[in-house]
């Protein structure tokens, strides 16, 4: 970060730095000042105090924050930081060890170490780096004893206590939990409140503890030590090269409220009261507390605050405790302030223009708002008393919290978000919303009620296309911005609508229509660029020109700045800004042959914005506001196949051109993510499947057919429940291992499965966890789960070319059929988004009733010397009747009745291989599913004489019907 622009921009004299005014010189404000200084900006910090003393306490620098500081050149170990290599917890009342954890192995998961640092030392280091003369770029200016009384978000102006007004290009409110700046955000006048807990804090030299036999054994070098009781706790950890110990004693606020006068962090505490509050703790703990220097003992209320509606308004951004005050239970308050400061700098590389600031703040908020509040929620849960957790039926999953907290790099994440906005050459124009509204099919609408809308005419020329024999073609389309589509479940998708795309080559027109359903038409497209910074495009058909587009006065700009698309910023206290656009819509319509007015295909399509490609040269961008657009209607004699379209285009009101751009880049747009909106996904119930079963010809054909259909339907991903993973109690889990391994398969050579790379869909896993939690389940993430053969062998057979993004959900070991029905029903809405739901279990699966001798004799599971026994055939027929004769709620009732079948316990000695059938029935068992076609038996195999594997498909691939897939 120290010398380069995040998107490869080259600094030159034309890149004027922004004048940035930061209110507050705490950890967050100084981090922002340092990061913005390193971007080359003119930074001013206004601090109300004289900075004569910084709070004498320590701070956690977890991997997510420590990595950002290291990127800026600040190494925690050089300022006395201690790497945390262990965690120890004692039982408070007895002093006995509850557990010890060596975190050195766990630390290898993270790119950067977890350091414990003296707050004052970190503060000084940040201040020196932000304001010192060591670097070549201009130092940030620190104005102490400069209390800010008011901020003007629209004018980026602040007013000091003495009446001085200072104007900049951007205001940053880093003025803490009692922030004045945040009140300038509409709805942001939030007041902090007592969380119900307060904390004593103090520092002790480590030597004082180690020299006392009563306390010496409690000191573990480089470790975090805790004593956690029902409603109070004591935390101890080292800093200053292990020479000092920091203490935080958290307790109910009412027990120390007599000491609270409103001095905040500098409130002096009473040692006698602290000892009384912790009188129930072991004598060794009281001996530690008794060593506190009362003149330096501090006590403060732990403050919380309602969620801000936004972190930004006009040219103001708030950060750190001003935006999202943190309780101390995870040590992430300072870390999130550091993330805020770095993310803000990431969206403002040198060369950002003042009139782009508001748009860039939108990107900043999109990158920070959800993450900061999610960690804030984690922290509140981590601080609940034992009784509060029990009352809410909650359990702490600190590994889940740690994975989310530590595994993030705010710089990389935010710069990537900035790069995703890079747009192709286009001319953005203002036109009539009410006119464009007529183009929108049912379900689509403008997000804003305004009657002026934005649209783009974008032209792209491609060359060197291998599939065209090295040749190329051009396309020009009309893109209408600010559109949303309301899905059947009521949720909305936001994007840009493409009603029309001209191309000058038949081959891409045919493939684009057939494979993607795009609204493509033929036209000759002539693109001429001259050396005098101008470009002209003409549209014609057999010599008749019906459109010309001219651009002049192009000036090259850095793609990291002006090659980035943005959304409109919020203007004043009026309506909120539109949501971010996530991709492009178009509509597929294929008329039926011989049936006018009917369609073989009739549905909306969505193409998500592709991820930023790695290793691709940054595009060069040229922009201007000087452009002209001319469209002529013509008639049916001159344009017999296009005149009805050109007539509409020529009548479109144009209120002006906002911007014209020319972008030269390499590569083509990734359209592989195109999918049908409200495309319903199939639910499959598949039987146990090992590698031998995969050889059975009918089954192999079925799975290959399913793969082809799934590929053609462009499913979002796969959600599976197997038959070999369950959780005890009332809990279920969702697999979140980013690189899962595979359990071995008996009698199958590893070469048949070991090289198949599994793809864990972490984003969908988080969604499933959220949906299940909202549905009342005790659910958590399992980041260590290794996939079992009942799931990955299915994927290998269905998707031999590569594993689709997959999410695996566990069973619950109580094996309650109604519980698993409800799991499937809760996740059912994901079918509307194109997810394929699969359950894998067994139609008949009782290892005790199998006949093993032929398999051992012939080394073949399918070697059957006798027919299946009558009880197995009877139950297998009942499973088929259940799956193929019932739909909707009737399917749910039928599947649970099977567990009362006279032969059920013969067919299933244990219930584990039947729960996935209940899961699938829940996913395909709502009232709406009654309108779908009945389930179908696709293939079946018998092995070990009495084990039956039956494959059922529930639902349909039709765009009007839902589909689910399950394996039994």
UniProtKB/TrEMBL annotation:
Coiled coil regions in record: none
Extradiol ring-cleavage dioxygenase class III enzyme subunit B domain: residues covered: 702-926
Keyword set includes Oxidoreductase: yes
Domain FAD-binding: start-end pairs: 20-376
Region listing for Disordered, in residue ranges: 559-583
Highest taxon above the source species: Eukaryota
Entry keywords, A to Z: FAD, Flavoprotein, Monooxygenase, Oxidoreductase
CDD domains (alphabetical): 45_DOPA_Dioxygenase (cd07363)
Sequence similarity: Belongs to the paxM FAD-dependent monooxygenase family.
Identification of the protein by name: FAD-binding domain-containing protein
Organism phylogeny: Eukaryota, Fungi, Dikarya, Ascomycota, Pezizomycotina
